[in-house]
Structure formats: C-alpha cells, structure tokens
Amino acid sequence: MRKIANIFWLGIKELRSFMHDYVLLGLVIYAFSLAVISQAQSNSQELHNASIGIVDEDHSELSHRIEHAFLPPYFQLPHQIAERDIVPLMNSGRYTFVVDIPPNFQRDVLGGRQPAIQIDVDATAMVQAGLGSGYAQQIITTEITDFLSHSEGAPLSPVNLDVRIAFNPNITTAWFTSVMGIINNVTMLAIILAGAAIIREREHGTMDHLLVMPLTPFEIAMSKVWANGLVITIAVGLSLYIVVRTFLGIPIAGSIPLFIVGVMIYLFFATAIGIFLGTVARSMPQLGLLYMLVYMPMNMLSGSNTPLESMPAWLATVMQASPSTHFVSFAQSILYRGAGIDVVWPQFAFVALIGGLFFGLAILRFRSVAAQTV
Fold this sequence. Notes:
This protein is mainly alpha-helical and 374 residues long. The chain folds into two domains: 2-43 and 172-373, no CATH class; 52-149, abc type-2 transporter like domain (abc type-2 transporter like fold). 66% of the residues lie in helices and 4% in strands. The protein has 15 helices and four strands. The chain has a four-stranded mixed sheet, covered by helices on one side. It is elongated, with a radius of gyration of 28 Å. The chain starts with a helix and ends with a helix.
C-alpha cells in the first residue's frame, strides 16, 4: 500500500509540474486539436468541389446528359460558357476544367464516326487536375455508353462492373488522415512527455531529492508513466469525440472506449521509450535529437502512412516486432472497421507483452542511472 501511495502522490506532483509547463501543455492541446484539423482539411488527396465549365455546341440529348452528369461533391455544378471565353476564363483561374462538346456530336456518335470531346485542364491545381481529368473521362465515357445501350440496335455491354467501397464510400482523405494524426501523436507525445519529465527533474535538481527519499526507481518511473499516460488518454478521448466526430463530422465506426483501452496498453511501451531516452539524454536538445532517430522510422514503418504489404518482405517481418505496428493495426480495425475485442485481443496481448518487456528494460536503465547519481 505504501508503494501504491508513493506512486499516486508522485504522479500528482508530475501532473502539477505538467500543468505549469505551458510549452508542453500547449503542445498537447495543439497536437490533438489544431494539428488534427489542419491535417484533415489541408492534405486532401481526392477531387472535391472542382470548378467546371461546359461549351455545348451540339445542344442534343447526349450533350445535356453529359453536362448534368458532373455533380457534387466531386465537381461544382457546371456553367454554360461560350467557346470564345475558354482561354480568358482559364487564364483568370475561373475554371479548373472546361469540357467542349463539338457540333453534331450526338449524330456522329450514333453514326460510329468517333468524334472527339476536348477537355481543357488547369494543371496549376495539380492534385485536382490529375484526378479530375480521369474522373471527367470516366463520367463522359459512362454517359456515352449508357446512351448507346438505350439506342435501337446498339448491343448492351457484356459486363457490368459494380464497385463497392467499404468503410470509406467516397474515399475521403480526411476520414483517414484525421484519425491517423491522432494515432501518430499518441506515440510522439508519450515519448516527449515521459522523456521531458526525466530531463526536467534533472535540470531542476529535484531528481537528487527524490533519490535520497525512501522511494525506489520503479515508483518514480511508474508515477511518470501513469501521470503522462493519463494526460494523453484524456486528450485522445476528447480529440475523437470533439474534434473528429463533432467538428470535422467524421464518423467513427467502432467503439471509442475500446480504442482508449488499447491506447492505455500501448502507452506502457511508448512512455517506456521516453523514460529510456530521458536517462540517455542530458538535456532537452539531446532528447529531441534522440527522439527524431527513434520516432521517425517507427512512425513511417508502422503502417500509418503506407500499408506493410507495400514494403519489402524482410522489412515488414521486422516491423512485426514493433508494438507501434500492432497499435496502428488494431486502431484501424476498431475505428474504421468497427472490430470488437474478439478480433483485436491478440494484438492487445502482443502490445502488452512487448510493452511490458521494454518497460522492464527502461526501469533497469533508470535504476542504474539512479545508482550512479547517488
């Protein structure tokens, strides 16, 4: 009971120190609010609300069908413009796309003369230009094929392709980047907060005070784990409920409480890395350099940016030993696909096992450093 009480009150002290460290407090608030919002809204990889003009020189049923096929959310509603206005309007940036349907287009299509439709694209909007031109071609081809299939004597297509996109029907980038931003920030802040707690004790001279008290290195380290873990856990829950679901309006398919349980298990590993780095570094700049060497490869290779299947086989096998890989995996399973505990419990167990082992190594390192200090 004495050990539990020591861990509890040391953790309260850690929380008070954190609340008075306005830089770290601001970093936590920013990482789980403005950073998530900016990452979700600025890193769009899909076509959205592209401006488009239509030059209809045919005025036929087919040209009208093509015009009305360009719909939100991919395109704005098309505007009729004259052929002579294409260059001035494109130069002024008024339209990203202009579709020019030539005269007698429907007659030539029915006659099998393979007429051409001109699509002018403003490539200064690079992402929308690349994706939008492909969308425009697909829309026009679909409308022409559908028009011909209903014409007398035209054969139907032998194959109808029915594509069903699961979990993210419109392939909206924000649905992915917002949640992945939170997941990446869990690892980042767990390492920084735990490592900064050790460095802060050393710089303020309070580490010596703790070591001469009837406290064990385990109690000191464990207090920092639960205190900083509590801060991150609360921040993750608030970010998912307030920022992602309410402000951004992104649906969460699975159980947020189950994901929070997984976060708490993973934090034993992430905070253990921070404690380990805090015992190696002698100052905050050194901690920052060590953090970059550890966090960047672990983040990039965890599967949060690219799937493991796209990596070399040997590298994907090596990353299976990292809890961050399994953390990203069960986070995506729960939040995107609505998986329950019956699906993710093996990953929970693996993260707990490896995290516990690494936490033990961090405690041993902290104990040896503490013995040298004394």
